[in-house]
Structures are given as structure tokens and as C-alpha cells.
# Entry
Amino acid sequence: MLDLRPNCECCDKDLAPAATDAMICTYECTFCADCVEAVLGGVCPNCGGSFSPRPIRPAAMLAKHPASTERVLKAEGCSPPARAA
# Structure
């Protein structure tokens, strides 16, 4: 089950469970659409994977299985991933 993390790992923007601008990679790294586009170029800096819009959990299921409250923020800052030569 997805964690539905509460913030962008890059800019720390709040991302509510129903946020339509929340993006995730296959490992659930979570970023806002602005950072994915403008800073990361569509590539996850943690795993090198691509992003998809994070699904929105229906309210009834959110009550049963709440979103995570643990904030994740890249301590070293957020920059585009290194490109292979």
C-alpha cells in the first residue's frame, strides 16, 4: 500500500493525500510536479526512474488507511541526477 507521503522531497511543499500535483517513482519517492519538471527533468534523483502521478486514495479508504505523516527531505538539497557519459 502506498505511503502517501506528506511533502515534496525537494522543496518540502505540503502534498495532501488528494494533491493532484504529487508525483512518485517506483520506490514512492515523492516530489511535486513543479520540482519534477523544473529541477529534476522527469528523472528521480534517488533511483534514476521516471515519475507518475500519485493516485488519490478514496476518502473512505483514507480513513481506514491514513496517509503517512513522516516528512522526507533531501538533506543534501535537490538537483538533477547525474547523466551517464
The chain has a mean pLDDT of 92. The first strand starts at residue 22 and ends at 24. The chain has one domain: 1-71.
